[in-house]
Amino acid sequence: MAHEQEHHPKLQFPLESEAYKIIDEIGVGVSAVVYKAECTPMNSTVVAIKSIDLDQSKDFDNIRRETKILSLLSHPNILNAHCSFTVDQRLWVVMPFMSGGSLQSIISSSFPDGLPEQCIAIVLKETLNALSYLHNQGHLHRDIKAGNILMDSNGCVKLADFGVSASIYESNPGYGSGSSTSSSPLMLNDVTGTPYWMAPEVIHSHTGYSFKADIWSFGITALELAHGRPPLSHLPLSKSLIMKITKRFRFSDYESNSKEGKSKKFSKAFKDMVASCLDQDPAKRPSAEKLLKHSFFKSCKGSEFLVKNVLHGLSSVEERFRVSKILGKGVHVEADDDDVDGESVSQLVKYRRISGWNFNEDGFELEPVFPDESKEDSIVKQVRFGGEMIIPGTVGEADGLSNSGRINLNSPETESSLLSSRGEGGDEASSPSSWRVGGKEESGIEGIVGDEAGIEGTVNTDIMVGGLTALIRSLDDQRQRVTDLITLFGGDVTSREDQLLQLIERLRLDLENERQKNFQLEMELEFLKIHISGASNTDENN
Ligand SMILES: Nc1ncnc2c1ncn2[C@@H]1O[C@H](COP(=O)(O)OP(=O)(O)OP(=O)(O)O)[C@@H](O)[C@H]1O
């Protein structure tokens, strides 16, 4: 009989796909599908298999890193893989099956307005245990979010998905495991993670970031668990990324909560804890170890509380996934709503600068901080994010990303910092991760030259390309979903190919009509010519 099984290091799971029987699809990630499966030779132990498309996944190094890091880690709050192997062009990572699924799947199906605070405290404390261990081992997770926190049937919480995690040791060989993590000056420079949860210093990659970036994402995850979604997730990824924001911006979902008085439901301790994680200055954010001592976690209940208050009555992870697929739920894909707080995007693009974020503890939300208004008239077309990030030339063009600044894609220091941060060379050099706008170094690829030279800043091309790629996928997804729904209600959807064929046919008929008209006109003309020449001959003869 199938049963759930916790990871046991002595168990050797088979390394061939034939040993596993896929039962159902339980999730999809960016380039992976997650299945519930049974391992037949292991007494039909239920497992989760993450099947990663190696063709689609451009970052094979990250995947290799994930499996390597996971195999070295051992902590009750970290989800270890049983084994991994390749199947054709896919990497199969076989993991213990966590029947509760991810916290993201739990909240999106059963707690759309967020979990009760006591439940949040337990989930966050268990996550912090994992994070503290991870940081003490010299690793950053870099993708902390509810989607990567999983729960099993006993209410045990585990941190998963080390696809983008990185080791400070790898990039800084001199760094010893005994060193303090909280004040470490060691930095990474490449940008990874999921944008809504990303710390400002990760987006401004050139300033470098360290363990405190995970603490920021942890704070965003706390808001996600509290409100049901992370800040700005109601904006599509591209808009969230380039922050088309004008005035003092309140997240509409949070605002509607506060209108109902719901934003007051959280304790002072909770708000204070989140506020400390969302400090603009990474140095001021507490370490994971210190956070664990915060009063918010003092009278935290145990996993049985989660079983009773979260898992009880919850449908299976596969059922939830089926429903979410039909409803198109999820923070990765949001409707491209052109209206934010009643203002159209074209109005919003007039002001695209924020200099950072303030966490409004009372309102329990993030608020943008705007730079000096007098600088607003500047001809520099930029988005300044945290005072550092500039996206060139988007002012006045609601739909485009035209370049008005000088773009140098291969600035030497960008590359060298990238290479040193990764501790690798070779192919990395050909994939620059940031643009330099109007910088002094002008070697490399240049874009359109404007007259704003001398203004420096960076924008990360990885983020932009990632965001835009996600947007294209989201549009394709949404088109497919709408098509499915129309079909479901008995409607008839003409496929894109059919539409084009119909258009071609229409154009062909139009052309045919035109030809006939032309032919007729020519005939009439001929007739007139004959008629006129006939008439003039008669005149001459007379
Ligand atoms: N070991 C597991 N047991 C049960 N469910 C799982 C397991 N691993 C993943 N899932 C489910 O599959 C979903 C997708 O997981 P996956 O790690 O591929 O993507 P993600 O973390 O949501 O997205 P991303 O690709 O951005 O990291 C999760 O949200 C979770 O519900």
UniProtKB/TrEMBL annotation:
InterPro entries: Kinase-like_dom_sf (IPR011009), Prot_kinase_dom (IPR000719), Protein_kinase_ATP_BS (IPR017441), STRAD_A/B-like (IPR047173)
Coiled-coil positions: 497-531
Keyword set, alphabetical order: ATP-binding, Coiled coil, Kinase, Nucleotide-binding, Transferase
UniProt GO BP: regulation of stomatal opening
Residues where ATP binds: 50
Signal sequence coordinates: none
One Pfam family in the UniProt entry: Pkinase
Gene Ontology molecular function, alphabetical: ATP binding; protein kinase activity; protein serine/threonine kinase activator activity
Region described as Disordered: spans on this chain: 401-442
Domain spans labelled Protein kinase: 20-297
Biased composition (Polar residues): 401-415
Similarity annotation: Belongs to the protein kinase superfamily. STE Ser/Thr protein kinase family. STE20 subfamily.
Protein name (database record): Serine/threonine-protein kinase fray2, putative
Natural source organism: Theobroma cacao
